[in-house]
Specification:
2 domains, 14 helices, MetI-like fold, mainly alpha
């Protein structure tokens, strides 16, 4: 297990290095001088030189990169130009909102999609399978922003059951604050549930054709026990990969959902910082999002052997 763990971590190191270089290069590749863009229409050479010195733009590019990486390793991503706050504090604060919504939505999606996929595979080419597959196709065809707008119109405007914008943390508002999460979570669940269901169905169908499943049934084991004890653990591996990719994508910033429901998440922070030309925040968000995606995929790689016996822990 330790050898497998070290191999996966070592394989992630080059990715992290490449991501760091790309994030730094992308910001430097933006047309124009960042200092001039931040100052706007102010024509003051002395102020421009002071801004360039404050941002470290008067140093060689290689030195700028090494300084930035060194500061990032210490948790210092710079200072926001627009908000006058540390970038790391902004990123973590806004990510906490994204994490609340995304983790809740992912858990609910798995609780619904995994059993649905198994039922569809178990009842393959029958009415239950057709209904589940058709519903999955319908959900995967709906854009997330359209689903969000539809939920706002129905439950917020017409029925007036739930708030349609804003956010209140549970720590501040108690359980009553959860009502702000209902619509965003439902929008994510409805748009992401299809991929998990279809993958779980496909992997379950493949597992049901294996000899050990037929052997378990031949021994007279109840069908429920066969499905839960023998089929589920061996079918969940490929589905875990899909869940990991979905989770990494959503945690990296569900910008569309956050914009529709005006949630102060990391995706919306990135979009607003781009419009405000707040390059330290943009750079910090991109680095955090990229490293988060790598970390989620690394976690999936480490969990995969627990569900797929074909993967050897060497």
């Amino acid at each position: 297990m330790l050898g497998y763990l070290l191999k996966r971590i070592a394989a992630s190191v080059p990715t992290v290095i490449v991501v760091t270089v790309l994030v730094f290069a992308l910001i430097r590749a933006i047309p124009g001088d960042p200092a001039s863009l931040m100052l706007g229409d102010i024509d003051n050479p002395a102020l421009l030189a002071e801004m360039r010195h404050a941002l470290g733009l008067d140093r060689p590019v290689g030195e700028q990169f090494l300084i930035w990486v060194g500061n990032a390793l210490r948790g210092d991503l710079g200072m926001s130009i627009a908000r006058r706050e540390p970038v790391m504090h902004l990123v973590l604060t806004h990510f906490a909102v994204t994490a609340q919504v995304v983790l809740t939505a992912t858990l609910l999606a798995c609780l619904v999609a995994v059993p649905a996929g198994m039922v569809a595979a178990w009842r393959q080419n029958r009415r239950a399978d057709t209904a589940i597959v058709s519903t999955s196709i319908l959900f995967v065809s709906m854009p997330s922003f359209w689903v969000g707008i539809l939920l706002i119109w129905l439950f917020g405007v017409k029925l007036n059951w739930l708030p349609v914008y804003g956010f209140e943390s549970i720590a501040q508002g108690g359980l009553g604050a959860a009502r702000y999460l209902v619509l965003p979570v439902c929008a994510i669940v409805l748009t992401e549930i299809a991929a998990i269901t279809r993958m779980m169905r496909a992997s379950t169908i493949e597992t049901l054709r294996l000899e050990y499943v037929a052997h378990a049934r031949a021994k007279g084991l109840p069908e429920k026990r066969v499905m839960l004890r023998h089929v589920l653990p061996n079918s969940f591996g490929p589905t875990l990969t899909v869940i990991g990719l979905m989770l990494g994508h959503l945690l990296s910033g569900a910008a569309v959902i956050e914009t529709v429901f005006t949630l102060p998440g990391i995706g919306r922070l990135l979009v607003e910082s781009i419009y405000a030309r707040d390059y330290p925040v943009v750079q910090g968000c991109l680095l955090f999002i990229a490293l988060l995606y790598v970390a989620v995929n690394l976690a999936v790689d480490l969990l995969y052997p627990l569900f797929d016996p074909r993967v050897k822990l060497q």
